[in-house]
From TrEMBL:
UniProt organism field: Eumeta variegata
Recorded superkingdom: Eukaryota
Taxonomic path: Eukaryota, Metazoa, Ecdysozoa, Arthropoda, Hexapoda
Protein name (database record): Uncharacterized protein
Amino acid sequence: MIARKSKMSLRNKGTIYTMCIRPVMTRATNAPWYVKNSILHRDLELPTISKFMKDASERFFDIAGSHQNPLLVEAVSYEPPPPNHFCRRPRNVLLDPPDDLIVEVEKLIEINKMVTD
């Protein structure tokens, strides 16, 4: 239902995440409902979904650039649209600065690593 090719809106996909996936994470850790996602990600040492997707995209573009299929290589090398253009290409997302949640989770993971070392 929340797959890439699903016709469901992004808002509804977010609702499914909030109602189905996040509760499983909190149940697996036996965390109360009020524990922040950033704390769960830190304790489980899991990247946020946006960080995971960004890393997966970077790996894809790295592999696709040297692929033997010329159509795939051509899709990787493109001219990005002007900054004021409304359409965002996938590679542009990789260049965006991380959002607040990712920054917070990465800080907490680093602090956790320093404490355990």
